[in-house]
Each structure stands twice: as C-alpha cells, then as structure tokens.
C-alpha cells in the first residue's frame, strides 16, 4: 500500500485586528533621563542658596548700609530654578533648554557670590573703586530711566555708523577685489589709511563735521570700513575659477558674475569682516561718546567717573555687556539665516 509522503503546508488563519505587532511596528519608548541628569537643573538653585546664606550670615565690613536688591535677586533665582526643575517632568522641551544652561548659570552665581565676599563682606577691595553687587544693582535701579535713554542714544549712533561703514566696506571691497584698475589705486590707499585707528581721527572729525553726532558716526564708519573692505576683497579674490567659468559658459554677463556668483561665494569672508568691524565699532563708540557726544553709555561712564561714583560706572558696564552681546547675537542669527545653504560645508 503506497503512503502519501507529501508535506501539506500549514493552514494560515486570516489576520485579525488583535494580532500582535511586529518588532518593526513597535516604537521604542524614549529613554528617561537619569536622576543625576535631572539634578543638574538644581545647580543654580544650590548656588543661589549658598550665596544667600553667605550674604546673610557673614557680617559686612566694607560698609554698614543695608542691602536689599541683591538678596531679592538671589531669592528670585531660587524660585525660578525650582519652578523649572518641577516643570521639566511635564515639559521635555523645557528640560532640553534648561539642562545645558544650568552649569554656566551656576558659575555666574558663584562669581557673584565671590564678588560679594571680596567687596562687601571682607573688604579685600576698598571703596569707592570696588563697590559690592548690591550697590551696583541699586545704581541700576535708581538710574534706569537715564540708562535707558543713554542706551537708546548709543544704539542710534552705533547703528548709523555701522550701517554706513559696512555699506562702504562691501562696495569698496567688491570694486577692489573684482576690477584691476580699482585694485591698482585702492590697495595703496587701503594699506596707508586702514591701519590707523579710527580714534586717531577724532580731532580731524571734530573740525570737519558740523556736529559731534555726525563726527562720531564718521569715526565708527571708518572703524568698520577697513576690516569689512579687507575681508570682502579676500572673499572676492578667492572665488573658485570653475564657478566663474561655468557661469560664463552659460552666457552670464559681468553684472551676473559679480552679484550672482562672486558676492554670494564671498559671503563667509564678508561676514567675518562684519564681525571684526562690529568689535571695532564698540570701541570707537565708547571713545567717541566720552570725547564729544553728550549722551550715550560712554558719556554716562565719564559723567559717573567725574563724581567718583563707581557703582554707576559698573552699572553702565553691565548694560554695555548686555547691549553688545545682544547685537552680536543678532548678527550671528543673520549669518545663520543668510548662509543656511552653506551650513554643511562651513562649520560654525
């Protein structure tokens, strides 16, 4: 009797809605942050608590004036840090924002505590040249209207001079970098006048221009013009020849080669010049306000120095640091927006 040895395939059941999902369909849960990583957000609160305890329990030696604003600042930092620590469990985006910034905020608070200890508490640095943080904060609070007006005047002066100098620098840099005739006449002038500090032209600017404001704008423009021009020339001169050859092969004219090929390719160098010019403009702004302009942060520093009120001087320096840092950040944002197509080519 013959035996049928054919293997029958197993019967398959139709898929059901309750069939278990495959490994590819299951999305792994995001890893939960460890306890140590979560506690990093508490570092600013711990630093603020340490500074507050030191301020309350160590007697003041430099002066007997009561302090008010500095302890309130530390208490506000503690409250904000604890609120962020509590909210980061429910808001992951806040956790990703706060955790990288916690160490640097902690370092700033410890620096503030050290300032308080070496001035107000132990008087290692005497008055009036080294006031404590509370005196500086009190000056900020008392003169906030005057400081706001001075900051506005400095912003107008800086924006006017920087815009004029950047425009002049880009135009002259493109002309000298692209045209041989302009390079022949422009480079000697650039080498002769460019290295001279803009502040050396203060006596000449006061005589030539009708007002101190226009003279200061011209000085800032000169300080910005030289680095922007030099870096623009470098960028135009280093445009790859292959790009220009391809554009000429496709029928590009001279204006297209300059504005659509050379200038976009030179933008990284141009932005380096703009950053260098911005640093030079800050220095020239303060010097110009100290010498001639009767408004602005530089004028405020000179006025406070005459009265030996160094708490106001330090208050103005804090405003300057924040003011210049914000402007630099805006320029970085503009650079990232304009050069977004080169983000994978150039590292910054």
Can you walk through the features of this model?
Helix content is 71%, strand content 0%. The chain is mostly helical and 348 residues long. It has two domains: 35-131, no CATH class; 143-342, MetI-like (MetI-like fold, Orthogonal Bundle). The N and C termini lie far apart (84 Å). Residues 15-19 have low confidence and may be disordered.
Q: Report the total helices.
A: 13
Low-confidence stretches: 15-19
CATH fold group of the largest domain: MetI-like fold
Radius of gyration based on Cα positions: 31 Å
Largest sheet geometry: none
General shape: flat
- From the N-terminal CA to the C-terminal CA, the straight-line distance is 84 Å
Total strands: 0
In terms of DSSP E residues, the strand content is under 5%
Average pLDDT reading: 84
CATH secondary-structure class of the largest domain: Mainly Alpha
Annotated CATH homologous superfamily of the largest domain: MetI-like
Following the backbone from N to C, one meets helices and strands in this order, namely HHHHHHHHHHHHH
Number of domains: 2
């Amino acid at each position: 009797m013959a035996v049928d040895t054919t293997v029958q395939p197993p019967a398959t059941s139709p898929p059901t809605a309750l069939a278990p999902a495959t490994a590819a369909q299951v999305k792994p849960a995001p890893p939960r942050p460890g306890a140590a990583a979560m506690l990093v957000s508490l570092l600013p609160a711990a630093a603020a608590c340490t500074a507050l305890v030191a301020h309350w329990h160590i007697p003041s030696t430099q002066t007997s004036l009561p302090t008010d604003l500095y302890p309130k600042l530390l208490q506000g930092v503690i409250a904000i840090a604890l609120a962020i620590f509590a909210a980061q469990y429910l808001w992951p985006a806040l956790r990703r924002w706060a955790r990288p910034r916690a160490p640097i905020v902690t370092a700033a608070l410890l620096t503030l505590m050290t300032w308080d200890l070496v001035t107000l508490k132990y008087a290692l640095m005497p008055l009036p040249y080294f006031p404590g943080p509370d005196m500086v904060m009190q000056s900020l609070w008392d003169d906030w209207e005057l400081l706001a007006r001075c900051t506005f005047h400095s912003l107008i002066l800086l924006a006017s001079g920087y815009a004029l100098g950047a425009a002049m620098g880009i135009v002259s840099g493109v002309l000298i970098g692209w045209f041989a005739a302009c390079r022949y006449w422009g480079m000697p002038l650039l080498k002769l006048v460019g290295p001279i500090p803009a502040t050396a032209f203060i006596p000449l600017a006061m005589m030539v221009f009708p007002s101190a404001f226009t003279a200061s704008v011209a000085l800032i423009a000169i300080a910005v013009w030289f680095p922007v021009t030099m870096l623009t020339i470098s960028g135009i001169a280093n445009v790859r020849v292959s790009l220009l050859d391809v554009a000429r092969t496709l029928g590009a004219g001279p204006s297209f080669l300059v504005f659509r090929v050379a200038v976009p390719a030179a933008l990284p160098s141009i932005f380096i010049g703009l950053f260098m010019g911005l640093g030079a403009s800050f220095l020239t702004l303060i010097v110009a306000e100290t010498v001639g302009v009767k408004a602005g942060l530089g004028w405020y520093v000179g006025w406070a120095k005459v009265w030996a009120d160094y708490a106001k001087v330090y208050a103005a320096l804090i405003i300057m640091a924040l003011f210049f840092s914000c402007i630099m950040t805006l320029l970085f944002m503009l650079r990232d927006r304009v050069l977004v197509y080169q983000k994978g080519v150039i590292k910054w």
